[in-house]
């Protein structure tokens, strides 16, 4: 028999599947649908192992569901707008479109080498005008719904990339996620999407998602950040203004000893006295360059100064000072807080530093107020020093204070979300232009539908300075106003690429429609996505934005579903063996290290060896192409699936890759041996014990593998079951029995979603003309699973003396008789008096003597 040669069979079948459109989604209305989706890649140029793992996982699901009789939609595309293309243009002078297109072609070829059952007829690239025409059209849907608006706002400005960054693109140290530059604050007119209008639904509907990891749902809930409390007003002494605050602890309002405004608050200059003016202005200047994170860092001293102004606490009738401080954020709540140092840690710290009075109004149940508080008491308790509310439990006090405030006209109940509106403007070229024309008389006018797409002009220069090249291209910029015809100017901002990826899964359902973003029937037919697979790094933003889009489009009548992704799997990371010099902190490439005695080649110091997420800077990456070349796609797939459950991290291990290659070779030999050497004899009327045992092994494999896939996609245990089945077949004696043939065919079919090329080749070698991937998934035969004999353990005084084979359905009495009459019992009992017999059906009989 010939050798297993993946280099020969893999390209052959890939070509065949492509030519026969084997993976085009069926639209047969009689089949249930299954929409399997991988997060689409950014076309950086090369696939990495993380991509490979992601797509292989989704592919097994797609192939398996198809065998189960589903019509499967399994598409792929490119998240193709974004900074790297533009940076490459600046560095190398290549146009972003060209750079992107080249990368797409290269990565597409690599994807095809993996044997993924993708429907390429639905391929999308977000940078193509056929796609972004609809991104722009959707923007206008938001605009018409009042969900897209412009606002002057302090933004995160990246001084290197010369662009605005979303809050999420600024890391914990206030640096740009991409350029690493220290982010500055700058005032600019920006476009926003009103995601806050959907905050409540985005939070509540997480409950509709039992198929999502709890961790992801928690991250989303925290991001939305719902707080329940009150809005209370403090009149400014000597003015008509009132300072409104948001508080989660209205029950502490009698303990308010000052109020604090964010320095940027519009009331700041109004309440500031002449004596404090200079100091206040200097302070505002200082704070303006601090990032939000710096301002709120817990371990940092809270800085602030008095404005000289005073306000009235309407509850106590006391006059209290108004201060400004950096820890109060203008963008959250009302941008002002009531200071309760006795019961809030930040306020305690601030009051202590600034010699502000501390007034206790809550004590733990059964305790007296302390002489001097050492730290803030932040729990609930009994209200004191609180007028008519004294003695009340503070939990009930919250409600009572809100009611009282409402009656007096001092405030009301309020729910506050941490979520902010989504800043979508980017001062960049390589994105979808925002389809708006600014007219001096009409304001922001939408580009009429028939003029979409607003195409990116090609004749621009990429200098890397001064923001977007679009602002410099007069011929593109100047257009007549669509409404009044007078000279007007195009919006030069492009959209955040997260917008492109917030609806690509909808476009796949009708990817080639030139007239609509997607047809309503088609989108409703395929949506929601049944299984989404991707990295945990998208747990918050991409998923939240996609959920938001889905809800807005539902409310616009464009589709029916509430949630886009029914089930979500966040696959674990692929980690590589990493060598690091613990003294210098330097990572050492593995080629330079002797694995048996890892030492720094430069200094001779011993290295630490561990697994870490693969990355270029750590020299611990494994290039997928090298693995494909050496072993083929099927081995790479098998290793990835076998090595760890999909949601867990995976440690790359070449010995285990080798192991999977050997396993596939065994399958190859087993099946080709069968084809060449064993002709199957007539069907016997009754199966021998051999045959029955083998049949049980076959159907146990069918049952276990189906369960592994059906439950939580436990591919690793499914592969173990496949190995067991392979062993059972190679050890079987009845190689000319029809049962053996059944087993060989079952092995090929069960292995098909995992190793699609090898199984296709073997399936054809077995004499079949159709594809193994079009076969029906197997059902276990309950009759084959029944065991007709079990091994019964015989014990004397609890000590195991041996086992005997007995019918599986024997009764207690029969079991006892079989045991008594067995040679083992005869030998050990040897006439002794049996005091008691313990029978555990299915397991053992114990004689107590
Ligand atoms: C008085 C008070 C007393 C507060 C107390 C807490 C404990 P979350 O849960 O995050 O919503 N706060 C309100 N707006 C703020 C802003 N713009 N910048 C900084 N802090 C702000 O927290 C709400 C609490 O954070 C509010 O309740 C307010 O302090 C503060 F014993 O009011 B609290
Ligand atoms: Zn006009």
Report on this structure.
With about 850 residues, this protein is of the alpha+beta class. A hairpin with a 3-residue loop joins strand 19 (about 435-440) and strand 20. The protein is built from 27 helices and 33 strands. A four-stranded parallel sheet has the order 2-1-24-25, with helices on one face. It is globular. It folds into five domains: about 25-125 and about 500-570, 3-Layer(aba) Sandwich (Rossmann fold); about 140-195 and about 420-495, no CATH class; about 225-415, Isoleucyl-tRNA Synthetase, domain 2 (Alpha-Beta Complex); about 670-785, Orthogonal Bundle (Isoleucyl-tRNA Synthetase, Domain 1); about 790-849, Ubiquitin-like (UB roll). The model has no long low-confidence stretch (mean pLDDT about 95). About 35% of the residues lie in helices and about 20% in strands. The site of ligand ANZ has 18 residues, from strand 9 and strand 13.
